[in-house]
User: What shape does this take?
Amino acid sequence: MPTLAVYPGSFDPLTNGHVDIITRGARLFDRIVIAILVNPDKKPLFEMSERVDIAREVFKHLPNVEVDTFEGLLVDYVERRGAQVIVRGLRAVSDFEYEFQMALMNRRLHDTIETVFMMPAEQYTYISSRLIKEVFSLGGRVHGMVPDMVEERLRLKAATK
Ligand code: PNS
Assistant: This one.
């Protein structure tokens, strides 16, 4: 049976760390779905439609990468999609506690869905969407840390603010 993996997250915005994990995931699994969480409690910098557009554009060369959105429990979405695996990136030990809790909670909710942790390339281990937004908003350079399209859209947002 082909293995379908789901890579969930907020992707606000997509970073080169995410891109690295997805690219590795696309080599490992038959198909990988970038599942962007619709979170009514958070005001994102990038609208959902922009996050979807960006991910589709960045991965248009990889036919086994799909972009989708989901609401509610992740395990319910994974089950609905008929996927077997949740992929999460682990950058540093500091990620571990939260990721471990989530993985075990998801296992408690749905025993047969496996969480697979993947490490990004070293140069991306300190990058997070939160830091990208903070650095950019304070005038710092984020070149090389996010896809060019994200950098352009960040500039556009700053110019039209
Ligand atoms: O990119 P993020 O914000 O670290 O992603 C977190 C995400 C989307 C994976 C997590 O918040 C999630 O799965 N949310 C959906 C709701 C859910 O299933 N919560 C229980 C998780 S144990």
Residues 75 and 106 are 6 Å apart (CA to CA). The chain has a mean pLDDT of 97. The radius of gyration is 16 Å.
